[in-house]
């Protein structure tokens, strides 16, 4: 089950402990990247275009709960 991403007006909140700030997020992404390799062969991503992205799970760093997040309004959102 894909989880909703926070928006400008919402944020995640752990329903078990109330955490608002620390989460481990597992996501799948399809991206196109423009790589620049220097003469030594070290690669650096100069451009990244996200074609699709899906959040698979969110784990709370405080209580270790998995997929127990909800979207709540950010303070001052919409004002």
Describe the 3D structure.
The structure is a single chain. The strands form two sheets. This protein has a two-stranded antiparallel ribbon. Strands 2-3 form a two-stranded antiparallel ribbon. 0% of the residues lie in helices and 54% in strands. It has one domain (10-73). With 79 residues, it is mainly beta. The protein is built from no helices and four strands. The two termini are 32 Å apart. It is elongated, with a radius of gyration of 17 Å.
Question: Mind sketching the topology for me?
Answer:
Blueprint: E1 10-14, E2 23-37, E3 43-60, E4 69-73
Antiparallel strand pairs: 1-4, 2-3
Structural class: mainly beta
CA-atom Rg in angstroms: 17 Å
Number of strands: 4
Proportion of residues in β-strands: over 45%
Q: Any idea how many domains? A: 1
Termini, distance in Å? 32 Å
Q: Please, what is the oligomeric state?
A: single chain
Largest sheet: 2 strands, antiparallel
What is the molecular shape? elongated
Specify the number of helices.
0
Helix content: under 10%
Question: Which regions contain 5 or more consecutive residues with pLDDT less than 50?
Answer: none
